[in-house]
From TrEMBL:
Active-site residue numbers: E246
Protein name, as recorded: Aldehyde dehydrogenase family protein
Highest taxon of the lineage: Archaea
Source lineage: Archaea, Candidatus Iainarchaeota, Candidatus Iainarchaeia, Candidatus Iainarchaeales, Candidatus Iainarchaeaceae
Subunit structure: Homotetramer.
Ranges in coiled-coil conformation: none
Keyword Disulfide bond in record: no
Gene3D superfamilies in UniProt: Aldehyde Dehydrogenase, Chain A, domain 1, Aldehyde Dehydrogenase, Chain A, domain 2
Family: Belongs to the aldehyde dehydrogenase family.
Domain Aldehyde dehydrogenase: 12-470
PANTHER family the record matches: ALDEHYDE DEHYDROGENASE-RELATED
Organism: Candidatus Iainarchaeum sp
Length: 485
């Protein structure tokens, strides 16, 4: 079986532990290769390499740094099909979605490469004569990038692309469920000619590798996407550094009585069962007006029953497996809870086939405060909640701890505008599903979804820079601000 290595200071190296772990194909449960089960010492080495490389990298003009990003984007494009197939093998989602994942990575490298010729600060008048005031965006230094498996190329790219163009050096720890895709990304970055030490990858567990990156004082910034519990741990243990967190959601689609139901059903199916429900933007709650609840349920159940489960590499497959055994068990546990909390209308069990499959599941008559309507399941489980009007819909929509994505289906402009105004979420869609964020717009959420940062778009640049404020006094004498003579 193929053994893969860490990437430190421009070299592929074994961990000091001499131990490895396997990455499994969730559709077949077969191993795809062995990866380094790294130690704290490996992390230290990666940090030293990054520290060494960072000053020269940040001294390289940003438009020159951007050239590497354009090249990475080009190489991703060239290898798109191969990367997509390999990703489906490693994490299960269907080929059209892994193609989308690669495309998102291509897009973000391209967008961030363009930032090499912007990285705008702002200029503003000084309160004093002959004095110039402006800001610049400066790199943070060495940053830690810790990523999940559900978008194994796109999410690392959301972080790595801006980190690079802004002049940071990186220590990257990918999810242990998708180290092969991460390795392929780093290989492409290497092929694009990035100087040694600017990006370093260390694979392995959260306890040894993740914790060390998060707590190490030489790491000046952390960007993390993953569970809320880990996010909380990071805020309590990282010490004083810049932190960006994206911690999931319990996203709802509101369907009003005037909605185009067929359009809504398509959006719900895509949002709830695309990526087998394993997106932090996935739709896991339907909040439906009582007058159309029955009609929506019928259409939804009909469409859900058409979905074909299978290996994501096969053309006929609509829904792939869950990522691993633990995810399958967790989804099953919630389906059991759901049986007590609502009425099961379809699915509810593991599929009888090899691999970590679970049937797309819908519960109706769910109370807004039921566990299945409150907790992030990260699987293909959808709860339907019936409401009497828009006010109640928005109240239910907001009655959760998370605040990532949201959606309303309505033909009525007033309802749409009120939803935009009153829904507590980082993202609101109108007449579209909860998923499908584009790379040139900010991505992230409020409440327990995050800590105020956004990824992608211009705010992705803010995540990976510090602001330097500059005053230049050319009056030739000491001038004091605040009117002091
Ligand atoms: C995630 O689920 O962690 O908007 C990210 C979307 C994708 C990104 C999802 N573009 O669903």
């Amino acid at each position: 079986m193929k053994e893969y290595q860490n990437y430190i200071h421009g070299k592929w190296t074994n961990s000091k532990s001499r131990k490895t772990f396997d990455s499994l194909n969730p559709a077949t449960e077969k191993s795809l290769g062995a990866f380094q089960l790294s130690t704290k010492e490996d992390v230290h080495e990666a940090i030293r390499a990054a520290e060494k490389a960072q000053p020269k990298w940040s001294g390289t003009p940003a438009p020159k740094r951007a050239e590497y990003l354009f090249e990475i984007s080009r190489l991703l494009k060239k290898n798109k099909e191969k990367l997509a197939e390999s990703m489906t093998e490693e994490m299960g989602k269907v080929l059209k979605e892994t193609r989308g994942d690669v495309q998102e990575a291509i897009d973000v490298f391209e967008y961030m490469a363009g930032e090499g010729r912007r990285l705008f600060g702002h200029t503003t008048p000084s309160e004093l004569r002959h004095k110039l005031a402006f800001t610049q965006r400066r790199p943070i230094g060495v940053v830690g990038v810790i990523t999940p498996w559900n978008f194994p190329l796109a999410i690392p790219s959301w972080k790595i692309a801006p980190a690079l163009v802004c002049g940071n050096a990186i220590v990257f720890k990918p999810s242990s469920d998708t180290p092969r895709t991460a390795t392929q990304l780093v290989q492409i970055i290497e092929e694009a000619g990035i100087p040694e030490g600017v990006i370093n990858m260390v694979t392995g567990g959260a306890q040894e590798v993740g914790k060390e990156i998060i707590t190490h004082e030489k790491i000046r910034g952390i960007s993390f996407t993953g569970s809320r519990d880990t996010g909380k741990w990071i805020t309590q243990n990282a010490g004083i550094k810049k932190i960006g967190l994206e911690l999931g959601g319990k996203n709802a689609i509101i369907v009003m009585e005037d909605a185009d139901l067929d359009n809504a059903v398509e959006g719900i199916i895509w949002g709830a069962f695309g990526t087998t429900g394993q997106r932090c933007t996935a739709c896991s709650r339907i909040i439906v007006h009582k007058n159309i609840a029955k009609a929506l349920e019928e259409k939804l159940v009909h469409a859900t029953k058409q979905l074909r489960l299978g290996n994501g590499l096969e053309k006929r497959t609509d829904v792939g497996p869950l990522i691993n055994k633990a995810a399958q068990e967790k989804t099953f546990m919630y389906a059991q809870i759901g049986r007590r909390e609502g009425r099961l209308v379809c699915g509810g069990k593991k599929a009888e086939m090899e691999g970590y499959f679970f049937e797309p599941t819908i519960f109706k008559n769910v109370k807004p405060n039921a566990r299945i309507a409150q907790e992030e399941i990260f699987g293909p489980v959808l709860s339907m909640i019936t409401v009497k009007d828009l006010n109640e819909a928005i109240r239910v929509c907001n009655g959760i701890e998370y605040g990532l994505s949201s959606s309303i289906y309505t033909q009525n402009i007033q309802r749409a505008m009120l939803a935009i105004e009153q829904i507590e979420a980082g993202i609101t869609y109108v007449n579209s599903s909860t998923i499908g964020a584009e790379v040139h717009l900010p991505f992230g959420g409020i409440k327990q979804t995050g800590n105020g940062t956004r990824e992608a778009g211009i705010e992705g640049i803010h995540e990976f820079t510090e602001t330097k404020t500059v005053y230049i006094d050319y009056s030739g004498r000491l001038q004091k601000a605040q009117g002091i003579d």
